[in-house]
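Methods, example record. To illustrate the input and output format used throughout this study, we show the complete record for U2A'/phosphoprotein 32 family A C-terminal domain-containing protein. The sequence lines were provided to the predictor; the line carrying structure tokens was produced by it.
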Amino acid sequence: MAEQGDSLCGAPEELSPGVTLNDSLVSTRSRCTGPLPTGTIRLDREQISSIGRLRRLQDIHSLYLQQNQIEKMENLESFPNLRFLCLAGNRIQRVENLRGLPHLSALDLSHNLIQVLDTGIRIPALHILGMDLVLAALPQLLQLDSQPVHGHTAEEEAGGGSCSSSEEEEEEELLPELRIPFTVDR
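The corresponding predicted structure is encoded as:
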């Protein structure tokens, strides 16, 4: 069985629970994932439980860490030019530590255990945010940023009020290039 530090490309099942994302893992796994666009690191389903301190990775613009065991958003400043971050399907409870990502435009935090949003977060470039379970954690929420929350108004709970197809088409026209799914299976 391969050790975490081995230079061989092992299957995710070979890693023991509680793996920390570190420079060695990034180096080993990024060589093993096959042809990916330059600037992309894909470490989904690797049983990663924490993000350790990494050397600055200036060239990385896309980071896939979905379906791991990550509990805390930390040490992300190692990716100062990150534009896309997928942390879907982890154990994150608090949205925090995003100040060091000024270029982040897409963030997927869906299917986590989010209970707290850091109100001091300012991400000027953010255009897409996936946080489906935040609304599930706040069932009493009727409005978010002065907009009605779908599924939480009296009309929608009575069975009506779903988004019309013309509204969906209008939304697609505004962001046509952003229809790519956040999570992609290996």
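Annotations derived from this record:
The chain has four helices and eleven strands.
The helical segments are 23-32, 132-137, 154-157, 165-174.
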